């Protein structure tokens, strides 16, 4: 049977690109993909609305005894394996995870950590899955990426949530024991704008299969994957609603070619590549969900999948703290250990306090995911945004504390007789996390959209240029009622009462209640700022990305403060000695965070955003090109974006399997 004709579009230069879409069309696609209902309460959503719902996170939720017993037993086996069977220096040196290591991880059950026991998995909770990732990521970030890409966003999670029973029974046992999986969305000319997705999945005339054509870029695990989830565009036709759709594809199917194994500044052992699909026949039963549901599946999967990177960032913070403590106590300068110099002490204090907060955020969000009582889409996104930014800063501080030794490789340190501390490697490895699974800039916009959802629900038609006068009138009436009830509540609250949150001010401990009162006041102040900005800019609000980013960063700091305080109180009630130290760290973190919050509030209205935008336009137009004179560009030749024209591969298939 001959293959169907595959529609494609080309740019004016002749190189292929995704469908040409307007900014409004791109936003519509993204809007349709998000879950537009809030069926469960959300602490973070309420926080952005000026409602500090501490009852949603306090008392701190606890895992059940069985999940703790099973989780701790697995962590013990995993630690023993990592300490005795994994050589992280070899992975860094060879830029590859040895086959025997992957085999051992499979035998240990790492591929099936989150997969239900009835399918051969371990059935770990989200909490212990993340603890396991922190262990794996600490010994080798490349192994952490392998395990995370497989289970957090690869085939298992979408199947668990959206797959049919037949699909789960067919693939989950393989995913739990033998098959490595990956998630393929990004393309050479398509990043965070899926409306331009160019990979096509054309249904056959009898509807029994789809024919897949396209190229996917940065396919983490793609070089070694046995199964992949592919996002492809199904054209609209009779009997087919079309749209971006998710498919499970066997990597040994005819027409699948891994054309390149990519190399990066960090994560040297990561199996990330370029995968081409040429007339790949995918059975219709391999489709996950309905046609057009692909982006919704992807976003829903990421609601909890995004917690994997924060877990590894928290683990990185723990390692930074350990090395900073040991080195700063041993290294002396000017007659005393460097830890006693104020400039170094500030960095050590930042690392300690922030590591406590990152673990608090991850564990709280993970347990909330396990309990399934709250909608954690904003919490998970904040965890990803906040932890990746601060982990990078902590690693940078560690390099600075180590001085020249921080810049020197572990291999070089060992060669001249010193402890092989891979601080510079950590800095390189962590850098990608600010880009992985949604860059910091995209996370700002994603969280901002969710944060203002209540406003858009009641007043969106007022600023919608496509809404008619009747729609605008109805929206005005809804908005009037909503804001008449909501705005007065932003004036005063428990944060102004000195006795509020008294359980966080036990005798003999730091006063965390004062910090929670600050969070409550900050939440109302944040909501007032958002309301004022919407009133001021209305439809132009979506273009104020600098403002929205700061709004999100303020909310993230307030969430982190809340998580840190709640965790400290939980630890105090369980272990008085550890609880006292936890209170000290939570207090320190909150004091540091409050300084950042005040700076962000100030920069909401005092900034150079407009001047920055004007200058950027001038740069792109060549106004300041003269400033580039006097240097030599070492870049090689070639197009900015590789040609991804559909068709048969002209390159050797570098795919390999650990099976």
TrEMBL record:
In alphabetical order, the GO MF annotations are:
acyl-CoA dehydrogenase activity; flavin adenine dinucleotide binding
Please list the cofactors this protein needs: FAD
| Bias-annotated ranges (Basic and acidic residues) | 21-37
Keyword check for Isomerase: no
Could you confirm whether the keyword Flavoprotein appears in this record?
yes
State the source organism's domain of life.
Answer: Bacteria
Mark out the compositionally biased spans (Low complexity).
10-20
Region Disordered, as annotated, extends over: 1-37, 637-659
InterPro entries per record? Acyl-CoA_Oxase/DH_mid-dom (IPR006091), Acyl-CoA_Oxase/DH_mid-dom_sf (IPR046373), AcylCo_DH-like_C (IPR036250), AcylCo_DH/oxidase_C (IPR009075), AcylCoA_DH/ox_N (IPR013786), AcylCoA_DH/ox_N_sf (IPR037069), AcylCoA_DH/oxidase_NM_dom_sf (IPR009100)
- One Pfam match: Acyl-CoA_dh_1
Show where the Acyl-CoA dehydrogenase/oxidase N-terminal domain sits. 70-177
Q: What does it catalyze?
A: a 2,3-saturated acyl-CoA + A = a 2,3-dehydroacyl-CoA + AH2
Q: Which UniProt keywords apply?
A: FAD, Flavoprotein, Oxidoreductase
Q: Which residues form the Acyl-CoA dehydrogenase/oxidase C-terminal domain?
A: 292-450
SUPFAM superfamilies according to UniProt: Acyl-CoA dehydrogenase C-terminal domain-like, Acyl-CoA dehydrogenase NM domain-like
Q: Where is the Acyl-CoA oxidase/dehydrogenase middle domain?
A: 182-279
Q: Which protein family is it in?
A: Belongs to the acyl-CoA dehydrogenase family.
- PANTHER family reported for this sequence: ACYL-COA DEHYDROGENASE, COMPLEX I ASSEMBLY FACTOR ACAD9, MITOCHONDRIAL
This chain's protein is named Acyl-CoA dehydrogenase
């Amino acid at each position: 049977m001959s293959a169907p004709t595959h529609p494609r579009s080309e740019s004016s230069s002749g190189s292929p690109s995704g469908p040409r879409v307007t900014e409004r069309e791109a936003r519509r696609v993204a809007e349709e993909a998000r879950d537009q209902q809030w069926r469960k309460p959300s602490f973070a959503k309420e926080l952005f609305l000026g409602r500090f719902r501490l009852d949603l996170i306090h008392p701190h939720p606890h895992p059940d005894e069985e999940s703790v017993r099973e989780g701790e037993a697995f962590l013990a086996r995993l630690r023993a394996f990592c300490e005795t069977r994994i050589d992280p220096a070899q992975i860094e040196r060879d830029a590859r995870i040895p086959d025997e290591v992957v085999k051992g991880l499979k035998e240990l059950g790492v591929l099936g950590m989150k997969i239900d026991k009835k399918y051969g998995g371990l059935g770990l909770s989200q909490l212990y899955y993340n603890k396991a990732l922190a262990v794996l990521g600490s010994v080798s970030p490349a192994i952490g990426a392998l395990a995370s890409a497989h289970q957090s966003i690869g085939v298992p999670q979408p199947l668990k949530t959206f797959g049919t029973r037949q699909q789960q029974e067919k693939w989950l046992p393989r995913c739990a024991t033998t098959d490595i999986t990956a998630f393929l969305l990004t393309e050479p000319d398509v990043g965070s704008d899926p409306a331009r997705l160019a990979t096509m999945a054309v249904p056959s005339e009898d509807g029994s299969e789809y024919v897949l054509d396209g190229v996917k870029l940065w396919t983490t695990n793609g070089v070694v994957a046995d199964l992949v989830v592919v996002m492809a565009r199904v054209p609209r036709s009779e009997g087919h609603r079309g749209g971006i759709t998710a498919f499970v594809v066997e990597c040994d199917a005819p027409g699948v070619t891994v054309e390149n194994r990519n190399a990066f500044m960090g994560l040297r052992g990561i199996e990330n590549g370029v995968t081409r699909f040429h007339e790949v026949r995918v059975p219709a039963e391999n489709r996950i969900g309905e046609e057009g549901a692909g982006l919704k599946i992807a976003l829903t999967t990421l609601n909890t999948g995004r917690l994997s990177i924060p877990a590894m960032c928290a683990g990185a913070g723990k390692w930074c703290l350990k090395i900073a403590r040991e080195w700063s106590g041993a290294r002396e300068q000017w007659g005393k250990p460097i830890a006693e110099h104020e400039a170094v002490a500030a960095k050590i204090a930042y690392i300690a306090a922030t590591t406590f907060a990152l673990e608090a955020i991850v564990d709280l969000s993970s347990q909330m995911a396990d309990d399934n009582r709250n909608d954690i889409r904003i919490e998970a996104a904040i965890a990803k945004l906040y932890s990746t930014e601060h982990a990078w800063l902590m690693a940078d501080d560690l390099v600075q504390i180590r001085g020249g030794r921080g810049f020197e490789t572990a291999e070089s340190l060992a060669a001249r007789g010193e402890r092989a501390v891979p601080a510079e490697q950590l800095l390189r490895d962590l850098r990608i996390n600010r880009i992985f699974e949604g860059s910091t800039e995209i996370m700002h916009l994603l969280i901002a959209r969710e944060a203002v959802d209540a406003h858009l629900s009641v007043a969106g038609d007022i600023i919608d240029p496509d809404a008619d006068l009747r729609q605008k009138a109805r929206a005005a009436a809804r908005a009037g009622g909503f804001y008449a009830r909501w705005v007065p509540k932003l004036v005063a609250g428990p944060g102004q009462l000195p006795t509020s949150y008294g359980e966080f001010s036990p005798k003999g401990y730091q006063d965390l209640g004062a910090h929670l009162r600050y969070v409550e006041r900050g939440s109302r102040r944040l909501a007032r700022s958002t309301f004022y900005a919407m009133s001021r800019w209305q439809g132009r609000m979506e273009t104020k990305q600098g403002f929205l980013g700061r709004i999100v960063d303020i909310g993230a700091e307030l969430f982190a403060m809340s998580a840190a305080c709640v965790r400290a109180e939980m630890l105090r009630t369980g272990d008085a000695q550890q609880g006292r130290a936890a209170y000290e760290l939570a207090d320190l973190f909150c004091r540091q965070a409050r300084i950042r919050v005040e700076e962000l509030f100030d920069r909401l209205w005092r900034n150079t955003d407009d001047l920055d935008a004007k200058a950027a336009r001038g740069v792109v137009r060549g106004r300041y090109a003269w400033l580039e004179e006097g240097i030599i560009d070492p870049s090689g030749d070639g197009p900015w974006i590789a040609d991804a024209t559909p068709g048969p591969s002209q390159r050797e298939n570098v795919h390999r399997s650990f099976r």
